[in-house]
Fold each of these.
Amino acid sequence: MQILDRRLNPSGRSLPNRQRFLRRAKALVQEAVRDASAKRGIRAADTGGEVSIPLHGIREPNFQLGAGGRRDHVLPGNKQYREGDEIARPQGGEGGSGSEGAPEGGGEDAFRFALSREEFLSIYLDDLELPDLAKRRLIDASDPAWQRAGYAVSGTPANLSIARTMRNSLSRRIALKRPKPEAAAVLEAEIAALDGKPDQAEQLLRLRAELERQLLRARRIPYIDPIDVRYRRFEPQPRPVARAVMFCLMDVSGSMTEEMKDLAKRFYTLLYLFLQRRYKHVEIVFIRHTHEASEVDEEAFFHSRETGGTLVSTALVEMQRIVADRFPPSDWNIYAAQASDGDNAAGDSQRTGQLLVEHILPACQYYAYIEVGRDGDQGIPGFPRGATDLWRTYEALAAAGAPLAMKKVRHRQDIFPVFRELFAKRGLLDGASA
Amino acid sequence: MNAPVDGGRLLWQGADWDFATLERIHDACAQVATGEMGLEVYPNRIEVISAEQMLDAYASTGLPLFYRHWSFGKHFAQHEAMYRRGLRGLAYEIVINAEPCVSYVMEENTATMQALVIAHAAFGHNHFFRNNRLFREWTDARGILDYLEFARGYIQSCEERFGEPEVERLLDSAHALMNQGVHRHRRRAPDLLSEQRREQERRQHDERMYNVLWSTLPERASAPPSQGETARRRALLQLPQENLLYFLEKSAPRLAPWQREVLRIVRNIAQYFLPQRQTKVMNEGCATYTHHRILHRLHEQGRISDGALLEVLHSHAAVIFQPGFDDPRYSGINPYALGFAMMSDIERICRSPTEEDRQWFPDFAGCGEPMPVLRHAWTEFRDESFILQYLSPHLIREMRLFHLLDDAAAPVLRVAAMHDERGYRRVRQALARQYDPAWTDPDIQVVDVDLAGDRRLILEHAAIDGRLLDEKDAKQVMRHLASLWGYEVLLREVAAAGGATLREHAVGPPR
């Protein structure tokens, strides 16, 4: 009999199979992730979770008998039936047979399984058509900065500290009085000089013994001993404790459709993911506005319906108030992202621009404006749709040199380029802006 | 290191165990199993694994190493999700029919559970694998692990040479036909060890025999086949042929040699599992009876504490739980329950038979010693014949089995037989038939193909009692079949009695 301990075998043996499965069901999983991420909050984008995909897409068919024909069932647990009794056919089943089908056939029509954080995020970001490098940066959770931290007795050869090792070697050799090669050479020369002089035989013998002793000692005390070896040690350095707050501003008046809100949500989610990488602590503030603005929770932000006109400046005033109240710019990195369909009440643009330039932009690290529209919404053919009020206002500000990122977004894949300007120069996306 | 049987010494105390405990348990079980019960087993190899590894093993049908395919990933995800939501516990063990017999035990198990698992798998299943005629004739316990290694390597090399999508498509098709990829009638004992060598030889032979001159020969004009020709052709192709994968491997005109080899791997593995599908009740019955008996004996000897025995009984009762047909938990007859009940019933008949038992089982009723009877049954029978032979009226009454007839043509279900004098034999027969693959699996055979003509492949499903194939699935499988065959495929469903064509499925050649 043998007992083997297999627990230490590398785990994740089924990983290749899992990857193949995910690839196989890619379209289905992607859709499931899209649904799931629409339901969950922005903060939850960074976790894994269970998704469910329709079973028929990943069926493994085989020949099996279908319903119909004559069947026999032998069942246990008879209570009142007698031979010849007739029993009405149970609803929705084949006979009183319970489930006799294949274990995965019939009843269940959805296939539920859990995705890890990496898988979930990867599929989510895939959907946004992010460049690979940027994607990898976002998915890679451990992004530690390694810092030199003294020396260690173990490590990889690449980290071998030769200077430190040789220093240890030298002090050990001195401490143990390892004979120097020069000393041996001197002895040898003396022996050579005395050799063949019979009157010095005793002296010669003594020198020879001494040489012997020294050579032996040199052999016993190695030039470099394993205990001398030192490696440069590195320690993961915790990311700087920095705080950021992210303001999500959105126009929720009637003209914003669910579709537009979904685009906006994706934009906010992505911004949140980026900020998560850079800051230890990220707060989110949701401000919605119609003709008046208020701070709300995420649920209300995306889902509740409001009616009213549109006054963008109210949101900026609200933001300004919250910043002054809770997030002093000296302690917080402030990011703001505004989503709107571009409508604004006539006459408000002036005030909006002024607020931005004088109060908001100086406090912000970054201000992004995305103007959402329907996919394929190009206005009347032949009459290019004019820029909206808000767009014209912001465009003027940007032209005047205000740090403002702005973009028209009609489709998911338009979202990422907005980030390019922001992060490219900070090194998060180096090389990824192609 | 056989510990002496001294009344008061417990094999373990508490829930913790280490490897020495496992060894003590194994040796104590071995004493009872081989000594008192007279079991013959392969040498045991017990492997301790973690829960995740257990899930891994699940996903690849319990085999320790298997080639890669998305469907295993799917099964893994499914099991994992159910396990995580707490809907399903993990099996305590998995045992592999190999020599040495490999049993996996989970590290989370308590010492008592390990004892249960060792007695169950390392002795019960092991004895069954080694002795049952089906396993002896249909599987090659010595070669299976090496063969799996070869299969995995071979399929990986195919992926490298021909690309993953290509291999995946082929495996999808082969898996769809896996149930039809077995020989149900004995041909020759498998020898998996020689498979690898054979594959190499075949390739070398092809390379040696290749001569570009042959491709320059002018094609001969073909004459219309005569009647005798058709019979000859069918004989040459060994038609009718029930093993579709075998037929495709040998005769499909458009497969490359590596594709044939992959089909061969899939069907060899399907063949390896065939006996397990036919002996579920007996195999589990044998193992459950064995662990029950071994652990009770150890308790009598004072080597297992009362508390541990209660834990054993708790798990044992959960395993052999059989809800009634109208219970929401009912999902078919539990093979553990039926198997264990039948084995215990045989023991009862041997030791203290009633008059009825003497009538029904004159051969062994009252013989006093159940082990020779059980060992004989475990060696010579499969589920169907075992039930037909050994299911007693006593047990039919106890389980309150009844036979329900479900005729799609009739408006209601009818109770055809029940647990009374008139019904015993009929219930027994009907139950046995539920375990007969010839009855439960569709009988599909290749009947004809004109290789010189349009190469249309014709199959027949002999539908018993008008039970036709599930149409949606059949359509998909036919598509797989057509992609392997390369030309049009036609499946006729004919009534087994009478031969009238009931339905046809045709799939055109893949583009």
Amino acid sequence: MSDSNVSKARQRRRRSMLWSLALILVLSIALPLGYALAQSGGQGVQQQQQQRFGQDRATNPRSDMWREAREGQGGFTTQTGPYVTNTMISNVGETWRQFRMGPLITYGGYLLIGALALVALVFTFVGRIKLAHGRAGMTIERWKPFERYLHWFTATTFIVLAITGLSLLFGRTVLIPVMGHQAFAAWADIGKVVHNYVGPAFSVAVLLMILMWVRHNMPKAVDLKWFAAGGGIFGKSHPSAGKFNGGEKVWFWVGIVVFGIMVSVSGFLLNFPLFGQTRADMALYQAIHAITSLLWIAFFFGHAYIGTLGTEGALEGMTTGRVDVNWAKQHHDLWYEDEIAKGVKPQQAEAPATGSVGTVGQPSH
Amino acid sequence: MPYKAMLVALAVASLSLLTACEQEVVFHEPGVYKGKHDETATQEAAERRQEQLRERAMTGMTDR
Amino acid sequence: MARMKFLCDAERCIECQACVTACKSEHEVPWGVNRRRVIVMDDGLPGEKSVSVACMHCSDAPCAAVCPVDCFYTTADGIVLHDKDLCIGCGYCFYACPFGAPQYPQQSAFGVRGKMDKCTFCAGGPETAHSEAEYVKYGANRIAEGKLPLCAEMCSTKALLAGDGDVVSDIYRQRVMRRGGRPQTWGWQAAYGNA
């Protein structure tokens, strides 16, 4: 009983304290304001001040000139040179600096680490996709030599470009503390040159790749089923697919076509500052180039994982050009049926290195 | 599976290298330089020339 | 501690380009590279004003922030300098700089940039003061001799001021007090009206 009385008293005290605080706050705002309003006869203060300010500005021609300069409007300069600008203040630089040193480096870093972690998680918990019925010992040609050369050319240049590009973006935070300034500057110098010269070659290869594989990558209804079945990575089923499965088509359209073209075009414009690009243009291209490349590299981690560690029997298709028949049936059954219908004959696989070579007198190819 | 465990351990180990990264991106502090030594940049040099440069400005830049 | 600053009095600058010439001559800056330039606003119109612009030696310099190789440094009295041995000529400082100060000699075809060059506040760079290497890379080191930047020291109308920010702002404040704060009490408007 006494307990409830005490708590009630405390509650009352607290309520009165809150109310008096609120009253003090309201009065501390209302009293000076009321005084000012009473003195000035109401709404006049602000208007008067605005009028005076307006008059000042109207009679101060210099303020217009400084305002123009601050907005980044151009003037006239007699000096000439490729990097001479006629603007007193360029506002885009600080924006670009904030973007590059803030969100780009922070979230770009998270993106790459996240993509790697995701791949590691899939590998740990899902593991390698095994050949369901072992090897058949018979192989069928999956990639023609030209396709393989182009693939590996693009792959190597992609990795070189990624390493040099990421060095330039993250080097200061990641590499300089490790290598020191002198060594990193030497590395970045080589990296910049390599990046600038390899880039155009890579772009040409990407373009050729698009032309070469676009007809196999037309979206079909079977791709939707492939996605619905989790692409064979998640779940037990093995969805059917043509030469390119749904995932590969996404990699083609998003990775190679969209990212490839965006990176190539922005890279070209950055590489050749010869078309009258302004600083604002260059900053914009750099932002596009960096964002797209980072997304592409993150996507690439997935592609590289699935093609090598993630799927048994996939890598040999790109290295030797031939895949095991059981692999073809499991992962690209529609393509395999088409090939067989076209009259392609699977051949005996070359004996593994440990076994005897040319046992059953199979034709060598 | 020790192979997989090793791989995961390697990945974790290499990712943990990133903890060595500098949080502070803007490294430059007045008078602090990590590269080649520049005598002109030091605190002592700046203090030594401060008075001289002030006099120079007062004689050279003012309307005498 | 002093903080070195440039200040250009737009009411006094007569666009004579002497600062530009002095800078080029003092440091033997190559063709196509301009450490300092005069920008004329409203050229040929009433109210035309010119301002001499170079590196402003920012306290929080954007060039230093974006440099991938971290080659910039600031002297104890606030002069922003850089190390050409580290510079890779990526052009980032040019994109980031509000004042268009970084310049690059073009060394080969396709617009490949050489090492960045900019105003050093006549303080040379990370080489022994007054050495041949310093002069070739960064130009003269007048600060080490106790002299201020040549562009400002030889400005005929004393429009361009250089030195410790406190000193420079004192000089400028006194000047403004004497001539009156409003531009219409001095200059074109006073002489010819609002024509």
Amino acid sequence: MLIDWFTVAAQVINFLVLVYLLKRFLYGPIIKAMDKREKRIAFRLEEGQKKKEEAEREVERYLKKNRDLDNRREALLSEIKGEADARRKELVSEARNEVEVIRTNWYEAIQREKDAFLQDLRQRAGKQTCAIARRILRDLANVDLEHHIIRVFIERLRNLGKEELGALNESILKSGRRINLRSAFEIPQEMARQIAEVLQNHGADPVDLQLEISSDVICGIELNVHGRKIAWSLEDYLETLEEALAEALEGKRIESTD
Amino acid sequence: MRISPDAVVFFQWGPISLNATILFTWCVMALMVLGSWLVTRRLSTETRLSRWQNLMEVLVTGIRDEIREISGQVPGRYLPFVGTLFLFIAVSNLLSIVPGYEPPTGSLSTTAALAGCVFVAVPLYGIAENGLSYFGQYIKPSVFMLPFNIMGELSRTLALAVRLFGNVMSGTMIVAILLGLAPLIFPVVMQALGLLTGMIQAYIFAILAMVYIAAATRAHRQEGQANQQAKKGDLSDG
């Protein structure tokens, strides 16, 4: 007999015991361990995913921050640039104004200097001209220039036009016959008398001739009566000379600035 | 000539006899349990694990996958029974290369016991799954088929027992005979073949048991439902 029933029964029990033992020692722990590992891996993956998402969010945040910073920097830069431009324009304009003021002052100073120089020149030229004319006249005609001037003046008085004469008489009358005679030099009594005579001839009444020596009247004679003036002096000639000199100086200045 | 290790009796006390089959079965059991205990004593749940643990995990995972594939169900409930069938038969057969060892599966008593376990387990699983309606499948397609169905159950159980016994016993016998005829090379070759046959027989036994159980548990289910269950099983069981 190949089958021993006791052995069969024993083997059945053995097998069932083995099933229990293997379940207890092999399948259970192994499956539990695998499940745990799976869970752990899943958890780690999930955690990794979370961290990744967090990192992505962080990156996004930083990028946004960077963009904001860039924008702010751009805005600040443009603002600063605008301010700098405005400031520069302001400064340039201030500098221009200052330069303009300085130039104006300079021009004025030059003008003053020029005027002073011209004034000086005019006076010197007048004096010099007078001196030269005096010397020339003295040398040539052997007569005193001042006498000549007085004579020319007397001649001029004599040769006054009717209208001028009328106006002069009117002025003499209004002034109460007081006539002021200014000259650059002393008028001899004789000459003064001749002038008075000429005036009397014109007006018929005697006049009160007041003589005055003034350096303003350059090398000439000036007759003032109640605001009316009759004069002969080098002033006119000197003014012409002055104008000519001024023109010459102006021309030189323009040339030098060019 | 000894055909079964049952014949080797070490101790006899009335009907109780301690024969080679039982003794070697205990050895195999002790080896398996000890090995399992040693390996699962310190299990790692980290991603780094020991080689033995890895081997065990591969084994268990392989059996689970096989069960899931065949039954289309969650393998959890069937794993201890079917897995132990496979492992016990496989270890019993593989140890036959150890000199002096007699595989317990070479005893018709052992194979009959295992087949008997399957014979009992099939209706138990069926009832657990489908209730008493499980018995309905014996009278399908008609009541007249009841005797044939019962005969079928019995014959396939017998076939299970005899197939395993025949294969293992014949392997052992061939080696024994060859040792007498050409003791040098051929027994080694046949031994190697015996190992292969032993593994295949273990696989076949376990697979057939699983097929019977799956047939019993799926008896009243529609195919669609079964597929659904299989998918669910796949999902829930990882």
